[in-house]
Amino acid sequence: xxxxxxxxxxxxxxxxxxxxxxxxxxxxxxxxxxxxxxxxxxxxxxxxxxxxxxxxxxxxxxxxxxxxxxxxxxxxxxxxxxxxxxxxxxxxxxxxxxxxxxxxxxxxxxxxxxxxxxxxxxxxxxxxxxxxxxxxxxxxxxxxxxxxxxxxxxxxxxxxxxxxxxxxxxxxxxxxxxxxxxxxxxxxxxxxxxxxxxxxxxxxxxxxxxxxxxxxxxxxxxxxxxxxxxxxxxxxxxxxxxxxxxxxxxxxxxxxxxxxxxxxxxxxxxxxxxxxxxxxxxxxxxxxxxxxxxxxxxxxxxxxxxxxxxxxxxxxxxxxxxx
Length: 323
Fold this sequence. Notes:
14% of the residues lie in helices and 47% in strands.
């Protein structure tokens, strides 16, 4: 009888000891936040700015210097190719700028033959070069017509596009068909999307806040534009140059040994486990891990002062979103 009583006493003491030890371990466990590893879609982008414009439009210029008469159109009118828009009555060339005279000379030449002279004196009827709607009108009757200045704008098919200036250092990454996210102050409540339609064949110089820069024009078709995005608005385009599925973890989760070898701490059965990793591309919200992790791993997002085998108490678990 005494033997059984002794065994029961020892068992009770062991149970109590293990209970106290467990409580002590739990009380001393490090509180950590974890990130559940899973493949997320990451993107590389090129951001640039430009102007919204109509898909098809053309400025109409006078072919001669003179006075505008018989203006037949107004903003909003629809015209067909060849429709008469207005007449330009020639005037003495001395009334116009040297630039205008040079343009005139390039159009009609410098010959002063009787035939050419007679043509210069004839009224010039300006016709529509394309079918569409008059969206801008810059002149009225009895004003001067100058070959260096547009008379009006005719816009053709419906739809909008975005003309972007892409730095020459980034243009090699741009291809037709790439997706584009479009934002702007004029339509700040909406984000629109589009695709790269065309890439310019040559670069041009533009003046920026940091000086002159070589850029290439990229035209983006805007898909399903709303009423709040209008021709002439400034806009920003974020062109998606590549997409891939990767494991993404917070920057602070990555630790490194003295020799540069990178590692993270995982939560395994309530303990910290050191796991060596290889990192890849960096993104705004985290860094890609190309080797060492598997889907479902729990990575410690705040591993400071954590050591191998340490007891852990998980206080929060998050999932990384697409970059």
